[in-house]
Design goal:
The structure is a homotetramer. The first copy, chain A, is an alpha+beta fold. Chain A has helices at residues 3-7, 20-34, 54-73, 84-88, 112-132, 139-168, 236-244, 256-264, 302-311, 319-328; strands at residues 194-195, 200-204, 220-224, 227-230, 273-276, 279-284, 287-290, 341-347, 372-376, 393-396, 404-405, 409-411. In chain A, the strands form 4 sheets. In chain A, strands 10-9-8-11 form a 4-stranded mixed beta sheet. The relative contact order of chain A is 0.14. Chains in contact: A-B, A-D, B-C, C-D. The A-B interface holds A 91, 93-94, 201, 220-223, 225, 251-252, 254-259, 302-303, 306, 345-347, 349-350, 352-353, 363, 367-371, 397, 411, 413 and B 91, 93-94, 201, 220-223, 225, 251-252, 254-259, 302-303, 306, 345-347, 349-350, 352-353, 363, 367-371, 397, 411, 413.
């Protein structure tokens, strides 16, 4: 249905029964495919501290395999370039000093071409590793490869969200891909429906089948009160009513911190919206387009999601409510994983009994469990196959450069 | 046991069966008693945006009764001064525009003396109100008075925490009260004990008997896993070991946001600690004193509490664990309400089914339910009688100007 | 002619032939007289980093005599309080560490009363010094006393400019003195006249008769081209035309740095102007008043003065042009010293051959000779007798909290 | 003697008698030659607000000819791309809105290749213009072309200074050109000599022969006192003594603003110096190199130059002193135009009688005449033929990314 899906996503729909090796190299190749519309200049610049240059994503996902796999399991492995360890470590304190995040855009060297060579070098190392262990991959090697695949898929999404932040800062407002469809209409014309999942003591978290991140565990039980969850996402049309009702000028609709963000960041509409004359436009991966009323609203902060819910007399779901509903109604709940990430009212925290792993891999999720809010689902930019009901994404309450929207919940009284 | 308790606190220990009227005026009088050691200059200056001048606290707690009670229930009531409504509204959007928080220290006018007159004017109004309704106070009037009493008690604590922020910025390091004992030693010399409350489905929140804030409700059930809670607070002695082990220089001990705070705010020890020569001193309400090893650590941020717990191989409790334990072991758990507020790992959020009241009073707690962490217990600066097991205090994770410490928890595996 | 003059200024008009001793104590007394309308709260708070609290001015001018005179020339002198040396040193690196300027408002202690005791203590020391040297004051003692008198007069002016910055930040907009006349009308109704001083090789700087600051020396010759100088100051009426012509929205009228200041500081009118409804008001030492069209414009930055001159097709004078004209036409040039300081186009720099004195006194002027612009004349807040044609005042180009205006010049072509 | 001179500079030594047309296209070609060592990535990124990307310099110098020449004098001329007018206008308010300076690094589009096409397009336009006016170029066309040539030469220098700011931010510290010699030794081994130009009434400014900027005019007379000027520049060796004497830790050596800059920007040495182990290195266009003691110190701020002069008991010259000496001793004064720009103590201001031209060209220099200090001479990065004794360069007192040094002066007493 979506242009990009038809053309591109199918190529990388990774059936779980394919061999690990195929899956790995297909993911690696897909990352590079994503960069095809981008010049080496596009791949180098950083528009904001939160976002990274494409070239950095390409290098970092490669460094991940070099640092955590090849250096540890292949004795004869030689680093492609000693300086890359410093350039492409993201935030792993255990892995030593690194180039500061806000300066990732200074890396005009190494060149995009050299980073491409780096990718090939590491891919050869990975090939060697599979050959070396051809009889049987050790369990911990498999785990690192699975983590590396999923890690790279996360960065595939970030390549798209981050390049949009760059192109939106460019006065030419270039399109990443004129055929990219992110603003597709909501499928159904029927009235929103409200689903009521079975509550009480419910199971939360990943059951251990297949890949999962440490933050989805330990699976555990919790107690839920009855609630309803809307089967559809809030749309741009809904949001225009919110704007036209003066929401961005009405302090009583907002959390205290939210109202501060509205004023200090001069928010008048979702991120990437621009009013030209009397009309609202939206900067997208397909370039500037009129705001489509029936498409899900995107690039909103937690504060805006929360204020909208208050305005409409509903609320955001907790992440547990979302998960229970997503497991119960995988088909009835529309746009679960295909449009925008959905803010929940849950602060990102460890599940009971969570203990991060030792060493650098333990930094993957645990050290961010503070001050952020959980989003569930996935977006049109999420790599196919990377979504599941237990997946926990998280951003700060004022973040707007991801494809983030909302699905409403309400109490049953 | 504590100097201040013996001399001062007894005066305002408010038995719940005293009449509302007595309790109200005793609280009002106690606020003024707290200001006795302070000159009008001390009462005027604001040392940081988070803290307010004493004079502002005196005016604001008075405005609260004027705006929410006298103006609404006494037709003949006349505002003491039209401008005070603007000066002394804190954050109530429903009550209209107000003087910006970071500029509260600009209010050299009205003078401390005029604010004192304002207090008398409103106290006379309150006396009139009791006489007017002498047969029976309407239920909503009682509720506002109870809220006003508790509100004023909260500001009594803030008067103390905020004046310390001022005196710590003064090169003379003046004492608020040389006899004030905040750094008292931990009572028991016995080894810390670990208590194991009964878990499973437990009751959380206030049961409705006596006064409570809206954020303690609705009371509800939740599901807890087995855990242990330490019967004592972490001490300065423990913290010195933490410092000496290089904690403030070891990024892997910290949450990512916490490590950022350490570096950007140059933290090397708890708030108000100063190293003079080879020795650590602590600025307190009694002036500069050597750090007492057996006193509970105070003025630490959430980040520091969390890092300490990691360093020692334990964790912070959730607010629910704290509450369940506090209800189960009111006597076995030491220093519950008498020393420092205790950080929990719970982000401040609405209880299931929470709906803020209409109008300004609905802003009391609800709009702050974002980005802050819950503290339980009370501190030496909390007015006696203002504490309870369901009480939820909350501050940002980097706040250090309150009397905040920690009590450790751990999993039972 | 001006209210304040009649009532107050006469008292301290210091005839040069009075004894040094009388002049000193009259200046000291006048400083205190200036503080009479101010409560101790008013005297304590600092509204902006550039401005200091009254109490600090009172302490600092006293410290000046203690540190530079009494400690050096009276062996038996004992400091009033050891901590005051730290509190009241302004910027003298030679005199050791000091309390940071932006934190001067934290000094609720020492109290205003104690600072008053300090003044008496030092005044007694000064009395002792005069008695001790009753036969003949050493030349260097005389020089320090003269410097101290002039230094204190400078702070008398700052007490007035700084208290206005505080009262303008107070929502009550209190008056320092309701009778204070700063916005007096321009005396003459005649058309502005343009004076043409004799040019060529001219003498600049102080001739050494009477007191002068080091920055007025060495006197030297320079070469001036023919020019005209307006005999009157630019008025608020002129400025309203400037505003109404869209000056604050027209980038081409401004220096590049000036336009940046306009936008980043949101300037739409001179400092302390406020538009209420359709009318412009001005916060003054007499409180809020309508803008008087025939009064000289005040509280404008160098950028605004410069842009106005461009708009009207003239220019600012250099400081040398101003001085030559002021010497040539002491009576024809109106409002030379009585209304507002007059911006010149001269960057504040050393005169040829200038060498600062050794030690702390050498820091008085020299180390500020960078990035500031010279103002000539004096303002209504300048102590009578403190002005002269060679006097050089200086502020940064974006400063607006002083009583600063302009007098136009033009080339003769 | 200098590598770059031998290889490169000779190519563009522009004899004044060559035809305007040849000179124009040679300058245009040389700009492109300068970019040869740079990838398109290098050409795109902006390391600091003051510096611009190479690609932007390439586009802007081209836009200059399009906007100020081709559009005005060739009726049939069509803009290469409508959006470029917005992208490549630097600061000309008369030329309309433009892309904000700090975001010049966001311009990954247009690509370097497209900017190259733009250059060719405009070069063709310029060729057409020469053909069109082949009999005789109108005087104002000649003037714009001359201005455009000189403007482009200024940007040639900026391409070098700005790329160094980028490469110094890159952890790989790449060299622009390993053979580039900027740190060449001072030619003579003889002791510094002090020259005493004839003073009194002297002629300042450009006499109108050949090209000059408006800020060098009107030529006029001024009066100079006797002084001496050193025939050599201050060296790195001198600077190491300054550092080793604790200069960066001694507040009394500095202007007040200078000391603030030292502390707030953590200066411990000139710009681009790095201490590795016990040794000082310097990042240059040839990459990281040991600091050469006999090379002129470079990349110092005005504050540092001024403090050094004070430390050594001398002073900086005024720009008039420098000019008079440079005219009197073109050969005796060494390193006048070949090594580093030389700070003077003169604030950048209009010469008497200066009136900027109407329209955009009038913004070239005039609107920057505030808060900056004049530098005289030229640097190793200045295009040959672009220097002269009356040339006025100017930067803010804390700027350090240009090749800036100092030559000492002193009074004759």
């Amino acid at each position: 249905m979506f242009a990009r899906d038809v053309e591109v996503k199918q190529e990388q729909k990774l059936s779980p029964d394919r061999s690990l090796r195929s899956r790995l190299f297909e993911v690696r190749a897909y990352t590079e495919k994503l960069t095809e519309p981008l010049s080496s200049e596009d791949q180098t610049v950083q528009a904001m501290s939160d976002a990274s240059p494409t070239k950095w994503h390409l290098g970092h996902t490669t460094w991940f395999f070099e640092a955590f796999l090849l250096e540890k399991y292949i004795e004869s492995y030689r680093r492609f370039d000693e300086t890359f360890h410093f350039c492409f470590n993201s935030y792993y304190e255990h892995a030593g000093p690194r180039h500061p995040r806000p300066l990732r855009g200074m890396l005009t060297r190494p060149s995009a071409e050299k980073v491409s060579d780096y990718r090939r070098h590491v891919d050869e190392g990975l090939t060697y590793l599979f050959d070396y262990y051809r009889l049987e991959l050790p369990k911990d090697v498999i785990e690192i490869i699975e983590l590396g695949i999923n890690h790279e898929q996360q960065h595939q999404e970030l390549i798209l969200t981050d390049i949009l932040s760059l192109f939106a800062s460019n006065p030419l407002r270039p399109a990443y891909d004129k055929g990219y469809v992110s603003h597709h209409e909501i499928d159904s014309f029927t009235k929103p429906d409200w689903l009521m999942p079975k509550v009480g003591i419910v199971e939360i978290g990943h059951d251990g089948e297949g890949f999962y991140y440490d933050n989805e565990c330990p699976s555990h039980v919790t107690l839920l009160q009855p609630f309803k969850l809307c089967d559809q996402l809030v749309t741009n049309g809904d949001w225009l009513e919110f704007i036209n009702d003066g929401a961005y000028k009405t302090p009583t609709l907002w959390l205290s911190d939210g109202w501060y963000a509205v004023r200090s960041q001069n928010w008048e509409a979702p991120g990437y919206w621009e009013k030209i004359g009397d009309f609202w436009y939206q900067m997208t991966l397909a370039g500037m387009n009129p705001v489509h009323k029936r498409a899900p609203v995107s690039n909103i902060s937690y504060y805006e999601a929360e204020a909208f819910a208050r305005w409409v007399g509903k609320r955001l779901p907790t992440e547990f409510e979302w998960e229970v509903a997503a497991k119960a109604y995988p088909y009835e709940l529309k746009q679960l994983y295909s449009h925008v990430w959905q803010w929940t009212t849950s602060s990102y925290a460890a599940y009971p009994g969570f203990v991060p792993e030792k060493g650098a891999v333990g930094e993957y999720n645990g050290k961010f469990m503070c001050n952020q809010y959980v989003l569930r689902g996935a977006s049109h930019a999420t790599t196919l196959g990377h979504s599941r009901a237990t997946y926990r994404n998280f951003f700060y309450a004022d973040s707007r450069w991801q494809f983030t929207g909302l699905r409403l919940a309400e109490n049953i009284t």
